[in-house]
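dumping this here so i dont lose it
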């Protein structure tokens, strides 16, 4: 049988070599999947990957920055394989652009291939237990948004302050300047300034200190 011509190219991002080897062993023999070396992709020696499989234990500052680096080009669709996700992390990773989430303890060859294929088709995949948690969090945020609007606050996004806005404000509260924030979050300095400008314009905040005070008062940071 000839090899399929429309194979899905996949890069694998994992700090642990054994975890990476496990994902490779699950995916490499599937006829529609082609695993691409990240270094060869960067050097233009291999086709650009359609899907990136990212393995993390949990979402912390380092893994969040790694996710943003993978997603920065806006072309790869990410399958996140996580050991655990705290409730505040759920909408964060979805907002970053993660298309599929697979629990590590449920990551079999079949589930990984299915997640890669569905992500490549632009579909979202969540474990059943995560779906109910996401829906519950969305409901709470919408209720919070309605209460803010009724009290005259208004102007905030549908799901409250966006995760990347809280990321920036949290670092400002820690005393970091624009350059340090851009390095920490893997954003350009222009992006950091644009995030702050959009936030302060939307919420009618006068300066960075006012923005931090608002975020602290409202419980975002």
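and the seq i came up w/
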């Amino acid at each position: 049988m000839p090899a399929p011509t429309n194979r899905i190219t996949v890069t694998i991002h994992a700090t642990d070599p054994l975890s990476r080897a496990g994902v490779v062993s699950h995916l490499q023999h599937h006829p529609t999947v082609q695993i691409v070396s990240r270094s060869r992709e960067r050097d233009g020696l291999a086709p650009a990957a359609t899907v990136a499989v990212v393995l993390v234990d949990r979402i912390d500052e380092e893994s969040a920055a790694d996710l943003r680096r993978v997603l920065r080009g806006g072309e790869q669709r990410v399958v996140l394989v996580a050991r655990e996700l705290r409730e505040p992390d759920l909408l964060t990773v979805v907002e970053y652009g993660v298309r599929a989430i697979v629990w590590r303890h449920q990551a079999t060859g079949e589930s990984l291939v299915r997640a890669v294929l569905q992500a490549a088709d632009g579909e979202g995949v969540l474990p059943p237990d995560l779906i109910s948690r996401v829906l519950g969090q969305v409901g709470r945020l919408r209720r919070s948004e309605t209460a803010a609007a009724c009290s005259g606050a208004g102007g905030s996004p549908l799901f409250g302050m966006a995760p990347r806005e809280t990321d920036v404000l949290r670092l400002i509260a820690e005393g970091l300047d624009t350059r340090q924030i851009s390095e920490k979050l893997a954003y350009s300095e222009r992006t950091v300034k644009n995030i702050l400008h959009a936030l302060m314009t939307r919420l009618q905040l006068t300066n960075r200190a006012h923005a931090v005070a608002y975020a602290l008062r409202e419980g975002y940071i």
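The longest strand covers residues 8-13.
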